[in-house]
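Something for you to look into today, if you have time. Could you write out one complete protein record for me, on any chain you like? Leave the record below and I will have a look.
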Amino acid sequence: MKTLSRLTALALSATLAVSAVPVAAQEAAPHAPSHAGQTAEAPARARNVILFLADAGGVPTLSAASLMAYGEPLRLHVQTWPHLGLSETSPVDAFVSDSANGMSAIVTGVKTRNGVISQGPEAVRGRTDGAPTKSLLEYAEQHGLLTGVVTNMAITDATPAANYAHSNDRAKWGEIFPQAFAPRFGDGVDVLFGAGREKIVEQLAARGSGFDALAAAHDRPIYATLDAAPAADARPVVVADEMDVHAAALRALDILQRSQTGYFLVVEWDAHTDEPRRGLQNVVDFDRLIAEVQTRVALDDTLMLFTADHSFALQVDGGRRGQPLLQGYDAWKASGSEDEIVRLDNVIVNDTHTAEEVPVLAIGVGAERVRGYFPNTHLFGVMMDAWGWTADPAPLN
């Protein structure tokens, strides 16, 4: 994606105020001519980038989370951020995305197929590898930054794995996890905090490996809890049964902020609302974490970006101020219903991903590049541009 000059960016921002031309179309327009005697200022560059990913956190989910927690719309902290866009999430061969394609597209700039982790679209899930696509974390490692990935999900799940691994099947956890210890660039992800311990152990064992073998081979312990990881370990790996994202993210930030060159931090928190109270509360808790993180960074050298890998079929179709949004939840929960459709008084949830665009909210250095409608691959360019980096040329076929 071409980097726009500052004059072009200003002109396009003015155009967006009166039109709805997609970003992709805007970027195809010729650059505005420079004026004689004027010297364009160099755009500010980010030292740090923090990507917050609410898995399945589409527009309806954010809206409902505000209503549930505060009884009013637009009360989430991220909803106060000044830069907003809508990101289209489809894979190359369908309309509805899963987390593997969704996150891979965001962090590599290349759409692929559902089920595929940071490989090109020629990959066939579970059968054929595609070319590995270089992730933002790998660029950050190549440039000497510190890097971290934090999630409440399994550390080998599709969203976190897209940052440090490449696989034709998101289910191959025994193949995915060891890639964190065998990086293609730099010394690999510095801080790795997530869940999924039992299943990862099982899949590693099926491949004749295990945590102890990996730790010994790479001189890097794999701790079972955050508390077990000593404060002196500057590159901790924690694979737990469950992960406290709030505590993990703040600890990761403390470590990464020691960097002399900057850092890249990815924090995921699940926002699926098939269990609506839990899913919406996750969004509220995530939002509060984001607000706390914002107080700990300098926005004049840091880009903070919030988005989702795909949307989810939640709809608020009723309710009044002063009444609980999730009225009827307790009766539904007590019924033990396993229907895919959750019908509460004011909310209906269909347990499925959906194709509509998801929100992107941004603040800090480079945040002005988030505007209008765009494919999710645009976010890769937003973050690369914030750093002032140029992506490697696409490999020749």
